[in-house]
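can u do me a favor
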């Protein structure tokens, strides 16, 4: 069997990581299947992809509120541009599909779904849409999609109520994260307690900003430097942002706490397991991983649009604390240090909405498409 996973990297690595997680799960279960991950816009035009990415990155770094406004207008924009976008890329994408002849096509980004839906009218393949945020928008909704995979039960209800999608097509799979998150690992203690002297470990803080290193990381580092009353150590992941990595390297000597500085890494699971709290912008992949570990989340500087919705979802489900002003970060770190019961409560709420076996669920759904919701839910709980 040939499986094609279509995605995009214009907005960071989240959508691509979701595709990788599904691909890894498929290969683990079905080693003889052929799995290919492709970027939709690269197929159409690498030049267009570079232009779109440059516009997007410029907008979210320099005019984030404009991006938020555009996102809020997505229903109207979808009505105006969804069909146009599908027609623009359909001819190139159809040729690619004809050359590849996949039996299953899975999309972790909405950009190609309209074209794929139209192509499916003439060419037979199973088509699925995998949401990578805790929010829905109209660009994902098309007539010929066989399965919708969503991160939470509330999103299934919205698909049914707001878009009249057949419930039989909707699966609450969770956002697909690396299968390693489903495996049981013992917490590795980086700092051990010195019981004889009555000394405590440092409070271990992980700071992340997604694959692109956004989210006000330098501001967070400065705010943590204001903490004098409790011992802290900080791990910072800058992703692919080399400029940020270089800037923080220069700052290290000015900080009054221990720091571990990392660039893009595939060891996120172990790093999360070895920290007490996570400060991050709420990208869909990052928070889904954190929910599974679990590690309490302090949300700071979400990108307007989908990440605002992710933040609202987490706060509503008592699984994160939203920080709107940088000066509140020291307060919350000290409060959590002195109130471990709140850390425990956050972890308990996270466990209720975590979907550690999401990638396994999705790969099994598409490759054994006769399996229904009840059986899949049992699989997730194992």
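np, heres the sequence
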């Amino acid at each position: 069997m040939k499986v094609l996973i279509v995605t995009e990297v214009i907005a960071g690595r989240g959508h691509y990581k979701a595709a990788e997680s599904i691909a890894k799960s498929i290969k683990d279960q079905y080693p003889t299947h052929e799995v290919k991950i492709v970027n939709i816009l690269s197929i159409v035009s690498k030049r267009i992809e570079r232009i779109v990415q440059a516009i997007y990155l410029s907008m979210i770094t320099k005019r984030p509120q404009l991006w938020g406004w555009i996102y809020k207008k997505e229903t109207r924009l979808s009505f105006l541009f969804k069909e146009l976008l599908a027609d623009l890329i359909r001819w190139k994408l159809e040729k690619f599909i004809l050359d590849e002849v996949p039996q299953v096509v899975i999309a972790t980004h909405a950009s190609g779904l309209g074209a794929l839906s139209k192509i499916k009218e003439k060419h037979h393949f199973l088509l699925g849409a995998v949401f990578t945020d805790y929010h829905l928008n109209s660009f994902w909704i098309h007539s010929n999609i066989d399965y919708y995979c969503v991160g939470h039960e509330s999103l299934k209800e919205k698909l049914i109520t707001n878009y009249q999608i057949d419930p039989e097509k909707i699966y609450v799979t969770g956002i697909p994260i690396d299968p390693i998150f489903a495996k049981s690992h013992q917490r590795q203690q980086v700092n051990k307690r010195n019981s004889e002297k009555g000394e405590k470990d440092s409070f271990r803080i992980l700071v992340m900003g997604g694959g692109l290193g956004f989210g006000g990381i330098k501001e967070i580092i400065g705010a943590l430097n204001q903490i004098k009353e409790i011992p802290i150590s900080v791990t910072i992941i800058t992703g692919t942002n080399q400029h940020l990595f270089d800037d923080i390297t220069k700052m290290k000597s000015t900080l009054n706490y221990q720091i571990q500085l990392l660039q893009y890494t595939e060891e996120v699971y172990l790093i999360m397991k070895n920290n007490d709290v996570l400060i991050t912008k709420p990208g869909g992949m990052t928070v889904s991983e954190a929910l599974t570990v679990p590690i309490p989340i302090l949300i700071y500087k979400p990108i307007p649009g989908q990440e605002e919705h992710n933040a609202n979802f987490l706060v509503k489900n008592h699984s994160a604390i939203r920080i709107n002003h940088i000066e509140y970060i020291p307060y919350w770190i000290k409060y959590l240090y002195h109130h471990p019961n709140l850390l425990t409560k956050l972890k308990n709420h996270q466990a209720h909405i975590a979907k550690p076996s999401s990638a396994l669920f999705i790969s099994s759904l598409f490759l054994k498409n006769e399996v229904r919701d009840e059986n899949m839910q049992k699989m997730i709980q194992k």
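The domain at 2-177+356-381 is CATH 3.40.50.2000 (Rossmann fold). hope that helps!!
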